[in-house]
Design goal:
7-stranded mixed sheet, globular, 6-stranded mixed barrel, alpha/beta, 34 strands
Length: about 900
């Protein structure tokens, strides 16, 4: 039995893909919505696996105070009374909210209204501060408004696309696939990747600039100077539509080709090729993301990019523009409602006129007069005792904020911590005094806005589990208890959306970029059926607008854009003798943020299953692939799997951001990162932390598979949990060997009810299988070095027990039965195709991605694995030619 599919919006990155969720055999499958303009039917592997993350395991389903369940009235009363007591004793500035790009726009709106409009403090900030705050300030400085001028279609129409600070192939896969398809259709299109690392995104690049980390602003200042020298500036556009030209060009004039090449660490010939490509391109899009924004000079980097587009007139036209792509599904929606501490609401700020306008609209005389504390400042204020109560909504700052251990220590001293979340056990909920169960994706009803300003509906297709409630409802109930009932009497999220839309057009008259007043009168049914639309949506743009600034008019008072003179500078933290390498953090292909959702999917854990660090082999020649390595900074240390790679630049270490304390013992990367922030945006530097590497000597390494749900991790120095269906799977290591493995296992699992089959191997190796009623209950493999196991065969044995003695012996050895070819490490997560299977197909004659797809299906769904497929093809062909 199946019901009609529900059209909704993906829960992950800022691409904002449309998804159709179809119920099937008691579960749900996800497919791309071919009517949605963001993805036109495409989905990445994370989106395709959304149906695998909907179970209720680990969910927070009831309100709790001090980890004990209570009723909703008790919890809400406790929140309101706690906030009221602190406000009465210390004033409203002692209270803070910390939100998330996972919130829906309606949730965000109510939170911002309550804090800034009625409590009367500006301390409402969001984890979006960590990903796109610099882009916001860059746009506002240049255009007079936080307004992304482009659309995804511009990427397909450009003559040249520059990808900078973005491993688009892994972080925004659907945008990457649209770009790859456009290049296939129009081979003359040029694609330039600017990144210190050689990533999967480089697969479609005509030119890869492997610049010195942090030198991006200098590169774009040099590009501006090069365009001036080549006569490629748009003098008419500059004269009639901009200000600040002379100072900006004078500052850029210092960046000659020779100086820029030296500063950026680039070959002069390569730099000139870059400049010439830009000069030859009539239509240019620069797509930039975290590698630009997450910097102590991120705003200047953004404005250096925007300067190039303004000066050459490559903005407001098809295939043109500076395009910041966000990291979260509703980072843009949060910007719209004032989720950032330096915004009020509807892209308004804190001028007297704007404060008065918002106050009159909200009918409140208590609107905050000043901006609040941004994320890093906010948690420092908690540490220092200035903020006595914090309400954290839908985010995990003890994993995602820089200097995360200091954040933990600060929260430990906070008198009142309220957390609204979907998961009961996170690093942050463990610190909470009051936990409130929120609805998760699939249960929520509201809107989100993606990176191209497209507002989409997120529709519920699952019932609310337990006592979980919408965030807007929770906030409204607390607001009513605080005495603000009339302003927060919402009964439906469509009411909140209409109010938000009305505020955007209130006394606007075209003076503010964000305006969706054309949606302020829609009915509940029209809101429920709302089709994706790009703002502004108003009387002048009833159908929305794909592209901004087509008339050359901007949102500064005089209608002109501003070029900003930039003085490039390197990051504050530079390597030392003690910490000689630079650590860069970022995403991997199949995981999302702190893994509370994607970590549930066994499929998404197969491509990269453990936290790791990637570095050039010459930087640590004594460390081999698969070793455990200790990565240390002045703030802490991590224990990770080593992945030396000659494609990684010398002097640099890459560490993924995803692993938290529920998935690994010591892999919270932001515990190493110092909280240096951009002085204009408050966004922290997450791409440039000096570290050292040291091989960690393990006495043993092993893997443990146990039937059943998640158990408490073993007390070993290293562990990492890998999601498997109906199985708990740990990778383990320690610096000392127990005297007796059976005693150690029995102490851990607390049972002796099983029939055991074991084998002792040389040099302390020990394998064990445990059975009950013919079913496998436990499999344990430990060796002096990391054991080489066929995990798929072991996992399969829990559902299909081996029948013969020979099959059991193969399983005891960690192997598939004789005659079965191991698949190897998963490359294509969509169809579970392993590296050895792919290599074997290449040896049998598959010499292209298309042939592999026809034979194995790999690369035929989301396409994220295509760069790796090409690498395997090249390696096998090279190996075969060397042998012939």
């Amino acid at each position: 039995m199946s019901s009609a599919p529900v059209s909704t919006t993906c829960a992950y990155c800022g691409v904002g893909c449309g998804v159709r969720m179809q119920s099937l055999q008691g579960g749900f499958t996800a497919c791309g919505d071919d009517s949605h303009p963001a993805n036109i039917g495409r989905l990445c592997v994370k989106g395709s696996a959304l149906g695998e993350t909907l179970d209720l395991a680990g969910r927070l389903l009831h309100p709790e105070i001090d980890r004990q369940p209570v009723s909703w009235p008790q919890a809400l009363d406790a929140v309101a009374q706690g906030l009221q007591n602190i406000i009465h004793e210390y004033g409203p500035q002692a209270v803070a909210f910390y939100g998330s790009g996972q919130l829906l726009t309606e949730d965000y709106y109510v939170a911002n209204k309550l804090m800034k409009g009625f409590i009367g403090a500006g301390n409402m900030d969001t984890n979006s501060r960590l990903c796109m705050a610099s882009a916001v300030v860059g746009y506002k400085r240049a255009f007079g408004a936080d307004a992304v001028p482009c659309s995804y279609r511009d990427l397909e129409l450009a003559d040249c696309v520059i990808l900078t600070g973005s491993n688009t192939a892994w972080a925004h896969p659907v945008v990457y696939q649209r770009l790859a398809q456009a290049k296939k259709t129009r081979p003359e299109m040029r694609i330039i990747v600017i990144d210190p690392r050689q990533t999967a995104t480089c697969d479609i690049a005509d030119l890869h600039l492997q610049l010195r980390p942090g030198s991006d602003a200098a590169l774009f200042c040099g590009a501006l100077n090069a365009m001036a020298e080549r006569g490629k500036l748009d003098s008419h556009f500059l004269e009639h539509h901009t200000q600040g030209v002379e100072k900006t060009l004078a500052a850029a004039g210092d960046w000659t080709e020779a100086k820029t090449a030296e500063f950026c660490g680039l070959p002069l010939a390569q730099l000139r090729a870059f400049y010439q490509t830009v000069a030859d391109s009539d239509r240019l899009v620069t797509l930039y993301s975290m590698g630009i924004n997450q910097s102590s000079s991120g705003v200047d980097k953004c404005n250096a990019i925007i300067n190039l587009h303004l000066a050459t007139g490559k903005i407001g036209r098809e295939g043109c523009g500076p395009f910041s792509i966000t990291g979260q599904p509703n980072a843009m929606g949060g910007r719209e409602v004032g989720g950032l501490a330096n915004q009020l609401a509807s892209h308004m700020g804190f001028t007297c006129e704007e404060i008065d306008r918002v106050g009159r609209f909200w009918k409140s005389d208590n609107v905050t007069k000043n901006a609040g504390l941004n994320a890093v400042e906010l948690f420092h204020a908690i540490e220092q005792g200035q903020i006595k109560a914090v309400w954290i909504m839908g985010t995990n700052p003890l994993v995602s904020l820089p200097d995360a251990d200091r954040v933990r220590a600060g929260l430990a001293r906070c008198p009142l911590i309220i957390v609204s979340d979907v998961m009961r056990d996170t690093d942050t909920t463990r610190m909470a005094h009051i936990c409130l169960p929120a609805l998760a994706w699939g249960e929520k009803n509201g809107t989100v806005t993606n990176s191209e300003r497209c507002i989409s509906r997120q529709r519920a297709f699952l019932p609310a589990p337990g006592e979980a409630k919408p965030d807007w409802w929770i906030l409204s109930q607390v607001a009513q208890r605080l005495g603000f009932g009339e302003a927060f009497a919402y009964q439906h999220p469509a009411e909140i959306f209409r109010e938000h839309a009305a505020l955007s057009g209130f006394e606007n008259d075209g003076t503010r970029a964000f305006d969706i007043s054309g949606l302020a009168q829609i009915s509940d049914r029209q809101w429920d059926e709302l089709c994706p639309v790009q703002w502004p949506v108003n009387a002048a743009n009833p159908q929305g607008r794909e592209r901004l600034f087509t008339d050359g008019r901007f949102f500064h008072a005089d209608g002109k854009a501003r070029l900003i003179a930039i003085t490039p500078r390197l990051p504050l933290n530079q390597p030392t003798d003690v910490y000689p390498l630079v650590m860069n953090t970022g995403r991997i292909r199949d995981q999302w943020h702190t893994m509370t959702r994607t970590g549930k999917s066994a499929r998404l854990m197969q491509h990269i299953s453990e936290p790791y660090c990637q570095f050039h082999p010459d930087d640590a020649p004594h460390i081999r692939v698969g070793d455990l390595v200790r990565v240390s900074s002045s703030h802490g240390w991590l224990l990770l799997r080593a992945q030396p790679d000659s494609l990684q630049p010398r002097g640099n270490v890459f560490v993924p951001m995803h692993w938290n304390s529920q998935f690994s013992q010591q892999a919270r990367v932001d515990a190493l990162v110092e909280a240096h922030t951009d002085p204009l945006s408050g966004q922290p530097e997450s791409k440039h932390m000096p570290v050292s590497l040291r091989r960690w000597q393990a006495a043993w390494q092993g893997e443990l598979f146990i039937r059943g749900s998640h158990l408490v991790p073993p007390a070993t120095a290293y562990w990492s949990r890998i999601a498997q269906t109906n199985i708990t799977h740990y990778v383990l290591a320690d610096s000392s060997v127990p005297e007796e493995w059976l005693t150690w296992l029995n102490e851990y699992i607390k049972t002796e009810q099983w029939v055991c089959q074991s084998a002792r191997l040389g040099e302390g190796g020990f394998n064990l299988l445990a059975w009950r009623d013919g079913e496998l209950q436990l499999a344990f493999y430990v060796h002096r070095e990391r054991p080489e196991l066929e995990r798929q065969a072991i996992v399969a044995a829990f559902s299909q027990p081996p029948q013969t003695a020979q099959q059991r012996l193969a399983l005891l050895a960690g192997r598939a039965e004789n005659g079965k070819t191991p698949a190897g490490a998963t490359i294509c997560s969509c169809f579970g195709v392993g590296e050895l299977t792919i290599a074997d197909a290449v040896r049998q004659g598959c010499s292209s991605v298309q042939q592999l797809g026809a034979k194995l299906k790999c690369g035929t769904n989301c396409g994220s694995c295509i760069p790796e497929l090409k690498t395997i093809i090249d390696e096998q062909i090279s190996l075969n030619s060397g042998m012939s």
